[in-house]
Write a structure and sequence with these properties.
By secondary structure, the protein is of the alpha+beta class. It has 2 domains: about 30 residues; about 160 residues, Lipocalin, CATH 2.40.128. The strands form 4 sheets. A 6-stranded antiparallel barrel has the order 2-4-7-8-9-12. It is about 20% helix and about 35% strand. The radius of gyration is 33 Å and the shape is flat.
Length: about 210
């Protein structure tokens, strides 16, 4: 009887050990897949620059002209880089005038439209007004010297050049997913937008049977 008890105890030990080992990978996987969310508030400032020079010179652009832009610095929240430096987007020339006679300079206004974050367009707000340097002093001198020839003295074109820092702002609340145990100064992933649940269909009307005469 004693031998049978010892044999049964020996057979039970391996099954307990295997069960304990089997639970370890599951716990590790749960920690590895843990995520937390970071929220970037609307109106957060983003510094951008055009990828190429946008100028009124030679009537190269007109109102409605689209141009590419990029972020100049990382945008960070809670120690996490949520919008990396170099993120591309788009802007629009919303208003402009060309340079003219009597030292009139060109003028231009551009707006900031969106950034591309992982294939999703994030709306921006803000605008920038750029004016060319006028030649008022030269115009006055020409009027004194030769009178009507001052009409041939023109101002300068307005140009927004690559590297010029322009201030835009995020137009919406952005939510990012980052690992729970992530070290600071890393890139977050933009969380998918929540979709509203469809409204339930109204119940079908029940036909009314007229009373029997």
């Amino acid at each position: 009887m004693k031998r049978l008890f010892l044999l049964a105890s020996a057979l039970m030990v391996p099954s307990i050990s295997l069960a304990q080992v089997a639970t370890v990978p599951q716990a590790t996987a749960a920690v590895a897949t843990g995520m937390r969310q970071i929220v970037l508030a609307p109106n957060t400032e983003v510094v951008v620059t055009p990828n190429d020079t946008v100028t009124t010179k030679g009537k190269q652009v007109k109102e409605g002209y689209k141009f590419k832009l990029s972020t100049v610095f990382d945008v960070m929240q809670d120690g996490i880089v949520v919008i990396p430096k170099g993120t591309v987007g788009e802007g629009t020339v919303t208003w402009m005038t060309n340079k003219g006679a009597f030292g009139k300079s060109g003028k231009m206004e551009v707006s900031f439209d969106w950034l591309d974050l992982g294939g999703r367009r994030v709306a921006l707000t803000g605008s920038h007004r750029q004016e060319g340097e006028g030649n008022t002093g030269a115009t006055v001198g020409a009027v004194v010297a030769v009178g009507v020839f001052a009409a041939f003295v023109t101002g300068r074109s307005a140009s927004v050049v690559n590297g010029q820092q322009l201030r835009a702002r995020v137009a919406e609340t952005l939510t990012f997913n980052v690992p729970d145990n992530a070290a600071r100064v890393m890139t977050g992933t933009l969380a998918p937008q929540a979709t509203a649940a469809p409204a339930p269909a109204p119940p079908a009307a029940t036909p009314v049977t007229p009373p029997q005469q």
